[in-house]
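User: Okay, second chain of the day. Same drill as before: sequence in, structure tokens out.
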Amino acid sequence: MDNQFLFMLAKLLFVVVALISVVPIMLWVERRGAALMQNRLGPNRAGPFGLLQALADMIKFFWKEDGVPGHVRAVPYLCAPLVSLAPAFMTFAVIPFAGNIIFNNEVFEFQVAHLDVGFLYIFAIASLGVYGIVMAGWASQSAYAMMGALRSASQLMSYELPMGLSVIGVILAAGSFQLQDIVALQSQELFHIGSLSIPKLGIFIQPLGFLIFLTCAFAETNRLPFDLAEGESELIAGYHIEYGAMKFAMFMMAEYINMTTASGLIATLYFGGFQLLPGMHTVLDLIHLTGFEGDCLRAGFQMLSFGLKIAFFMWFFVWVRWTLPRFRYDQLMDLGWKVLMPLAMVNIALTVMLVVYKVI
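Assistant: Same drill. Structure tokens below.
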């Protein structure tokens, strides 16, 4: 069988397993993180430090009775969780998580799908997730669910525009839509401070774009302080109020996988992607492997570096959730249209001038 085909299957399996594994890990992190910030214990019965609590929850979801309420529209009600979950898996496909390796004169890319228009693919597929939310709200035939679905649709529309505009600065600086090229740009040197070399990270050349993108990422993933679609104090549970067992678990999985994709995209655009963290180059030099073995070791360290960056931003999502209060709905809309949208336009204008005068 063709080596490239086998490698593609291996990459696909690795990404799917990694994304699924994020869910129980983040369930534990959410609970322990909340307990840490609120000066309480959190889960501590099932396994050491409560590590098996998430596994117990997943088993409960599998075995819990999974009925269909009599008042719902059955077909769209059943399809909605899958429509929300599928785009969450698909968007990660174009994010590179390590550099290329060469074996038998063949180049193997650590990216499930290498597309020339990676950005357009991500935003196109990510926008499909809202259909699952709207479908769930409409099919549930509940006022709470419908209100949550409408809020989510208007929220995503309001924040996808500034989010799309915020990354134009990175695209202009890299001169490419390909995420591999953007990662390569960030390995270059920006300037020197004595003997210290400052890399051309996206956070340095696009600080305003980073803040806009980060804010919009919270709204896109329906996370606090922008979780108006499922505001417990107003809508009880919002669009998934009529869901239980594995159907509810699929909505939860979609949220955490979307968080992972958003974290991976932030790391790729603004923090060097799979570029090695400080100190990793020293370790590689000490081990000093060459050829194919050296390439594999380097790729392993790059995956570790990328995973650590994703883990940091996943923790940042949790940190913000238990730090900031929920916005009012009118404040949410005002922030998107009156603040982030004009700032994104200003950022594009500034970036064009910097690129024309070859500052970046």
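Residues 66-356 form one domain.

User: Thanks, on to the next one.
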